[in-house]
Amino acid sequence: MKPSIWKWNTRTVVTIGIGAALYGATSWIGIPIAPDTQLRPAVALLAIFGALFGPVVGFVAGFIGHVINDLLTSGTVWWGWALGSGITAAFMGLIYLAKSFDPQGGDIRKRHLAHFLLYGLVGIFAALVFSGLFDIYVMGEPNDKIVIQTISAGLANAAVFIILGIPAVWAYAKRNRSNTNLTVER
């Protein structure tokens, strides 16, 4: 049985710390695709931590990780985008709530992958709409720049999620399957 998403213990805090550190430390790796926007493989970590540990852990790890990355790379935190990373991971973590979804026990089905894909894509674009509007109305950024950033970041994040994130969670579950064709002979 999976732990509740609201149960906080040492393992939860350590998981958030590891997720935030990994996401923050690897987010600087990317390919520039638009002004202040990159294709970042680290987005796959949001999918992994969200799916394996739930939407709350995903949100907190994504948010803190983005703040760490902003501080390391520019010294300025872009709060709308940091919240956007948390929102993205939280949506991806919604798959954790499916009763039969258990990648730690090796149980992942086609319908889980379909739901994971849907949650992830909705989360990516909801987060980018939030981040873009935050930048326009709170930070005073120009509309045309934000439109280019959100569209390019949305396409890049969706590609990373589909190409790296979903297969990573699927492979983890497949590795944990206990039913194999091997038998023990005595």
Automatic annotation (TrEMBL):
<dbReference type="InterPro" id="IPR009825">
    <property type="entry name" value="ECF_substrate-spec-like"/>
</dbReference>
<protein>
    <submittedName>
        <fullName>ECF-type riboflavin transporter substrate-binding protein</fullName>
    </submittedName>
</protein>
<feature type="transmembrane region" description="Helical">
    <location>
        <begin position="77"/>
        <end position="97"/>
    </location>
</feature>
<keyword id="KW-0472">Membrane</keyword>
<feature type="transmembrane region" description="Helical">
    <location>
        <begin position="12"/>
        <end position="31"/>
    </location>
</feature>
<dbReference type="Pfam" id="PF07155">
    <property type="entry name" value="ECF-ribofla_trS"/>
</dbReference>
<keyword id="KW-0812">Transmembrane</keyword>
<feature type="transmembrane region" description="Helical">
    <location>
        <begin position="146"/>
        <end position="173"/>
    </location>
</feature>
<keyword id="KW-1133">Transmembrane helix</keyword>
<feature type="transmembrane region" description="Helical">
    <location>
        <begin position="117"/>
        <end position="140"/>
    </location>
</feature>
<feature type="transmembrane region" description="Helical">
    <location>
        <begin position="43"/>
        <end position="65"/>
    </location>
</feature>
